[in-house]
Design a protein that fits this description.
Layout (H helix, E strand, L loop, with lengths): L24 E6 L1 H4 L16 H8 L4 E4 L3 H7 L6 E2 L4 E2 L5 H13 L8 E5 L2 H5 L4 H17 L3 E6 L8 H18 L3 E3 H5 L21 H18 L55 E3 L28 E9 L6 E5 L3 E2 L5 E11 L8 E9 L3 E7 L12 E2 L2 E2 L3 E9 L6 E10 L10 E11 L7
Parallel strand pairs: 1-3, 1-4, 1-5, 2-14, 5-6, 6-7
Antiparallel strand pairs: 8-10, 9-19, 10-18, 11-18, 12-17, 12-19, 13-14, 13-18, 15-16
Helix pairs in contact: 3-9, 4-6, 6-7
């Protein structure tokens, strides 16, 4: 059984190849707004069709990092483990819907590591730039949706976000037409436009939502993620991701994540501890690393990562899982970079891994932050293999604006699956804090993570 259009009761069929322990994955195809989920995946070729070299580079993408301008990741982190972003997005900066239709379907169908369960189709921003007709956009989108259905991927329609320029009226028309098309075809629709638009003029409702009158900030991405998760949760008949609580061969059972975000409050140059009142314990045996600054000098104490019984994980794969522990890096106004690393592990090339952790990023609210962080799996030669980072502009959107019952800050449960490439056979967990453009870290910036876990899905038999 594959997936197609939604049933009359409004729920979607789930793909039959999603087994126990696998995430329901969602990708995105489109223009530069799609690329902002994962900037290293841009297929831009100067306005021409992506070259075979670019396509092969996407297929062998080394750094599958998501950024805080990713509504996919913002939405998934609010989902309670019900779905996760696919390992790559398929975006081409500057592409119109006609170019998306002409260029991207064959690239998606040829991706060598499987397909996502669902695909958000985001187009229209650049159609407005060339004053394309509504009928052109709708015809292109209809063909794209049908292509996705034909390859067994559930299409999810999306309205483009507003434009705060002379093309704003085009986007307004497109948004209405896309919603009508989705209703006609009975496919889910994520209305990014209405979430961000001003009712007065159809432009961005807040300057904090955009950096250049077109592209969204981390705050806008957080709001779009909230809307996206609401649509997916209400439209898709999903079960939570099955994440083993203890990674031994006999204990692959469902793990309900602790709903309370608990952290260690120790900061740099101040001893941290694992408070027993919060239930944190240091498992044995342990693997330890400490906090270093950018020069490689240890500047803190007791900032250790404890690995939970790595020798018994997945049949002796020695994958470190830091269950029951949390760490916080806080800028100190002195060091240019702070980082915490874990035990390096060699993985089998071609195996599928999953990483998960609970995190909270709080940028400096006293002034324009420019603070950056990164959390994920890191390779000494090629950098981050997977994870999330604050890699785009943070001068905008650092506002305590409510989004539902939350704020625009990154906070929640991160989950990502990806295939191990030969260039990333040995990786280690890495948590880093720095500042865009250099200089001392902001004293008000902090990044906190807990329960960092790595799952070798192939070794566990659930890939």
């Amino acid at each position: 059984m594959g997936v197609g259009l939604i049933k009359s009761n409004g729920t979607l069929s789930r793909q039959s190849n999603v087994g126990a322990g696998r995430a329901y994955t969602v990708s995105m195809m489109g223009d530069s707004l799609t690329v902002r989920n994962q900037p290293n995946a841009d297929l831009y070729n100067g306005g021409s069709q992506p070259s075979s070299t670019q396509i092969n580079a996407l297929y062998a993408l080394k750094q599958k990092m998501f950024h805080t301008t990713s509504p996919l990741q913002h939405g998934a982190m609010r989902s309670g483990g019900n779905w996760a972003p696919f390992e790559v997005v398929f975006g081409c900066s500057g592409a119109t819907s006609s170019q998306i239709l002409a260029w991207l379907p064959s690239i998606i169908a040829g991706y060598p590591y499987g397909l996502p369960n669902a695909m958000i189709v985001l187009a229209g921003t650049n159609d407005a730039g060339v004053s394309a007709s509504v009928s052109t956009l709708i015809n292109n989108l209809t063909l794209i949706y049908q292509f996705l259905i034909n390859i067994g991927v559930q299409p999810i329609a999306a309205t483009p976000p507003p434009r705060s320029d002379a093309q704003a009226s085009f986007v307004t028309q497109y948004a209405i037409a896309i919603k009508r098309l989705a209703y006609k075809l009975k496919i889910p629709c994520v209305d990014f436009y209405s979430a961000l638009a001003s009712g007065a003029n159809g432009q961005y409702a807040s300057a904090n939502y955009t950096t250049d009158n077109i592209h969204w900030t981390p705050l806008a991405a957080g709001l779009c993620g909230y809307v996206l998760n609401s649509v997916i949760q209400s439209s898709l008949n999903l079960s939570p991701i099955i994440v083993p609580k203890y990674y031994d061969n006999a204990a692959f059972t469902a793990y309900s994540r602790d709903p309370n975000f608990q952290t260690i409050t120790g900061t740099i140059n101040t001893a941290s501890s694992y408070p027993t009142t919060l239930g944190w314990t240091a498992p044995s045996p342990t693997s330890m690393s400490t906090v270093f600054d950018s020069t490689g000098t240890e500047i803190g104490s007791n900032h250790t990562m404890f690995a939970a019984t790595p020798s018994t994980i997945l049949g002796g794969n020695n994958t470190p899982n830091y269950i029951g522990n949390a760490w916080q890096l806080k800028g100190n106004g002195v060091n240019t970079e702070l980082f915490l690393t874990g035990t390096p592990v060699a993985y089998t090339v071609g195996n599928r891994l999953a990483i998960s952790f609970r995190m909270k990023w709080i940028p400096d609210m006293a002034a324009v932050s420019k603070g950056q962080f990164a959390v994920g799996l890191w390779d000494a030669t090629n950098g981050y293999a997977a994870g999330i980072s604050e890699g785009y502009i943070t001068d905008y959107g650092n506002q305590t604006v409510p989004i539902g019952n939350e704020t625009g800050y990154v906070a929640g449960d991160f989950y990502q699956e990806f295939t191990v490439l030969s260039t990333f056979a040995t990786m280690r967990p890495l948590l880093a804090l720095n500042k865009r453009g250099g200089g001392a870290t902001n004293s008000g910036d902090s990044i906190t993570i807990s329960n960092f876990q790595i799952i070798d899905l192939t070794a566990a038999g659930i890939a």
